[in-house]
Every structure is written in structure tokens, then in C-alpha cells.
Design goal:
- It is a single chain.
- The protein has one domain.
- The chain has 1 helix and 10 strands; from the N terminus they run E-E-E-E-E-E-E-H-E-E-E.
- The strands form 2 sheets. The protein has a 5-stranded mixed sheet with strand order 5-4-1-8-10.
- Strand 6 and strand 7 form a beta hairpin.
- The protein is elongated, with a radius of gyration of 15 Å.
- The relative contact order is 0.25.
Length: 144
């Protein structure tokens, strides 16, 4: 039986609106093939709240599902997408991958029981001062 949970990504430490050749940087969440919930790259902080379904894999581990979830069974993740916005035109230039595999049944069941989201603090600037891209490292994400 699938259960719904909310994952709250509290994003801070944005890199700014001007990054390299990009003059109007935004970040949003990838849902399927579209980018939604976009916010400017110079935002001080922002919460993305995403509803995710959780089922059970054959081995008993959680299987994350839904339109926000990407990747193969056993390697599910969420994407934050960086893009340069010029009017209605969006030019994607990188994505940040947020792995879900470390979330286990204790965290999931507590979130369902308490009707609270599973939360992560996400720092969106990398060590070089640009947007955090690729699989987020421990210095860029903290689950609590």
C-alpha cells in the first residue's frame, strides 16, 4: 500500500542571479519533464514542499514514487534545476540531485504518524561560489 509523505527542502545560501554567463538565474523543482516552483537565484531562503508516495520494494525497503521522483528502484532522487531565464525562455544549465535512499521506514513512519514533513536543509552554493549541482554532498544537505 502506498503512503503519501511531504518532503520539505529548506533552501538557503543561494548563489545569486548572475552566475558565469547567465544573467538571470533561477532554480526550480523538476516534476516529470517540467520545472515548477521557480524562485530567483538571489533569494535569501525558500521552502519547497513536495508530496512523494512511498511503497515497498521486494526487499522491504522504501520505494519512492510520484511525479517529483526520478531514477531507478534503489536509486531514487529529487531534482532541483538551475536555469537562466529570459522572458518565457528557460535555458537549463545544471541540476542538483537529492538522493532519497538514506530515508528509511523509521523516518517515514514518524512523518506519517506526526503528520509532519521530512525536512532537509539545502545549501545551494558550491565551494566555488556557483550553484550546487550534481549529487549533493554532505556539506550541501542536512536531513533532520
Amino acid at each position: 500500500m502506498k503512503k503519501n509523505i511531504t518532503i520539505q527542502l529548506h533552501c538557503s545560501n543561494f548563489p545569486g542571479r548572475v552566475v558565469a554567463d547567465c544573467q538571470n538565474v533561477y532554480v526550480g523543482v523538476q516534476r516529470g519533464d517540467e520545472i515548477i516552483f521557480e524562485v530567483p537565484g538571489d533569494t535569501s531562503s525558500h521552502n519547497f514542499e513536495l508530496t512523494v508516495q512511498v511503497g515497498e520494494n521486494k526487499d522491504g525497503s522504501p520505494n519512492f514514487l510520484g511525479s517529483f521522483v526520478h531514477g531507478p528502484v534503489g536509486g531514487r532522487f529529487l531534482y532541483l534545476v538551475w536555469f537562466d531565464k529570459n522572458g518565457a525562455v528557460r535555458m537549463r544549465f545544471c541540476r542538483a540531485k537529492i538522493n532519497l535512499q538514506h530515508l528509511g521506514w523509521p523516518e517515514i513512519e514518524a512523518a506519517i504518524l506526526n503528520q509532519e514533513p521530512i525536512k532537509a536543509q539545502v545549501f545551494l552554493t558550491d565551494k566555488k561560489g556557483g550553484p550546487a549541482c550534481a549529487t549533493l554532498k554532505p556539506e550541501n544537505i542536512n536531513w533532520f
